[in-house]
Every structure is written in structure tokens, then in C-alpha cells.
Specification:
Helix content is 69%, strand content 0%. By secondary structure, it is mostly helical.
Length: 290
């Protein structure tokens, strides 16, 4: 069972890399690359302006999240910075029992460690909020300006493509329901809840683009079945694009890369890349002029 779990993730990761490669190749067509660069520059500039004018607010949000997370981890005993810090909640009342400079130095060292962990976590949250905000802002221009062009470019890679009937997934079992409940309970775990929220945000952004990309390609029920089957690949694609936002120059191409890679992911998910439905490898298929 564990082997199948990793095998499915490995195949999904390979599929995502293939879609990203083909999407990166296709953004040079139909003006996708320079439109993407303009959209990305505008979104980054907007969020730089927000951080400049409301920097105190974002710093306070990051600080509160980091302090709550560190306090929660210390309360659960996950983090232990020595006696007097995380071993017991009432340990601060025993500060007067410290004898000598050695105990005072140890206490100050523990406080410094807590401050460093909280500062590092606040910095991570500060950057994550910025990147997530930029990606969320890019959804609007990407959906209405770049996605139609990406659909046309990708469609020319599959000249004889026809949607096939998918294999329906089994109905939800008690195990699937239990996993969802555990996922909701994870929101109450310090630090881990931050990653759960980040995953939900990435998944939401990807599905918000996944639906419009399937319009005119597959039916609504087929789209839902395909999205369920490609759940792991969709999340991996979102994570890689999220990481690409912090890479200079490459982040300018993320909006167009998002559109083209999703279009490839959908079509490859149905065709299996076999027979006459496979994408052409030698370039775009010329379209007949009306």
C-alpha cells in the first residue's frame, strides 16, 4: 500500500514536469510570454505598494501567527528550549529560584532561542503572504487574457484529440471521510495548520483555473472526474508554480505557464499520450484559414 502511494505520487510528479516543459515551450506563441511578463510585473508592483503602505499591518499579522505557533508548539512539548521555558507552563513563576549567574544565563539563552524561532517563522509567513497574494492577483488577468490564447495554442498540439470516457472513481468510503475529518482537525495543530492553509490556498487557485480551462474541451461531469483523478498532479503543479514565483525572471512567465501547463495536463490526462491523440512533437499544426 505504501509502495503504491509513492508510485502514484512519482508518476504524478513526472506528468507535471512534462506538462511544465511543454507549457514553457508553448508560451512563446501568440504573445503569451510578453503578456505574462506585463501581468506579473503589475501584480508584483501592486503587492510591493501594499507592503510599503501597510507594512506594519503585515508585520503584525506575521508576528501574531509566529508567536501563536511557537507558543502552541511549546505547550505541546514539541519545542523544548531547556528548563524554565517549555517544560511547564507555570515555570515563569519560579524564576526567582534560579541560583547564580549560570541559571540566569541559561534562562536568557532559552529566551533568545524562542525569539529566534519566532523571528524565523515570522519571516517565512511574511514572504508566504506576499507570494500567495501575487498568485491570487494573477488569477484574474490570467483567466481572461491568457487562458483563451493558451487553449488555442495547446489545442494545435493535439490535432486529432477527442475526449475519452474516464474510469469512474469508487464512491467515497469511510476511510476517505476519516481522512477529510483528520484534515480539518489539523487546522488546530500549531505550525502544521499554516501548511494546511497554504495547501488549501494552492489547491483553490489551481481549481479556480482548472474549470475554465476545461470549457469546450470536456463536459462538466468529465471535468469533475478528471480533476479528482488528477488531484495529486494538480497540487504538485501548484507547488512548483508557487516556488517559481520566487525565482527571478522565471516568475514573469508564471501566469502563462499556469495556463498552458493546465491545458496540457487536462488533455494528457484523458488521452494517455497514446495513439492519434498524442501531442505533436515537431511544432504546431497549422490551422486552416477560414
Amino acid at each position: 500500500m505504501l509502495k503504491n502511494f509513492f508510485l502514484i505520487r512519482y508518476r504524478a510528479f513526472r506528468e507535471v514536469l512534462a506538462c511544465l516543459g511543454m507549457g514553457l515551450r508553448d508560451i512563446r506563441h501568440d504573445g503569451l510570454w510578453w503578456r505574462s511578463a506585463l501581468c506579473s510585473t503589475a501584480a508584483v508592483g501592486l503587492w510591493f505598494g501594499l507592503y510599503y503602505h501597510f507594512g506594519t499591518f503585515f508585520l503584525q499579522v506575521s508576528g501574531v501567527i509566529s508567536l501563536v505557533s511557537v507558543a502552541g508548539l511549546m505547550g505541546l512539548g514539541v519545542l523544548d528550549f531547556g528548563p524554565g521555558m517549555a517544560s511547564a507552563p507555570a515555570s515563569l513563576s519560579h524564576m526567582g529560584s534560579l541560583h547564580g549567574l549560570g541559571g540566569l544565563a541559561q534562562s536568557l539563552m532559552s529566551i533568545a532561542q524562542v525569539a529566534l524561532v519566532a523571528l524565523a517563522l515570522a519571516s517565512v509567513v511574511y514572504v508566504l503572504v506576499f507570494v500567495a497574494g501575487v498568485l491570487g492577483t494573477l488569477q484574474l488577468p490570467a483567466r481572461w487574457q491568457l487562458l483563451p490564447r493558451a487553449q488555442r495554442v495547446v489545442a494545435r498540439r493535439y490535432p486529432r484529440w477527442q475526449p475519452t470516457v474516464p474510469v469512474r472513481r469508487a464512491p467515497m468510503t469511510a476511510w476517505d471521510l476519516g481522512r477529510r475529518i483528520l484534515g480539518l482537525l489539523a487546522l488546530f495543530v500549531p505550525v502544521w495548520s499554516m501548511f494546511v492553509l497554504l495547501r488549501l490556498l494552492i489547491t483553490f487557485n489551481m481549481h479556480w483555473m482548472y474549470g475554465p480551462a476545461a470549457e469546450g474541451v470536456v463536459a462538466d461531469q468529465q471535468r469533475r472526474d478528471l480533476a479528482t483523478a488528477q488531484r495529486s498532479a494538480i497540487f504538485m503543479l501548484g507547488v512548483l508554480l508557487f516556488m517559481a514565483m520566487v525565482v527571478p525572471v522565471l516568475n514573469l512567465l508564471v501566469p502563462a505557464l499556469l495556463c498552458t501547463s493546465i491545458c496540457h495536463l487536462q488533455r494528457r490526462g484523458w488521452t494517455g499520450q497514446t495513439g492519434s491523440n498524442a501531442a505533436t512533437e515537431d511544432g504546431l499544426v497549422p490551422q486552416p484559414r477560414p
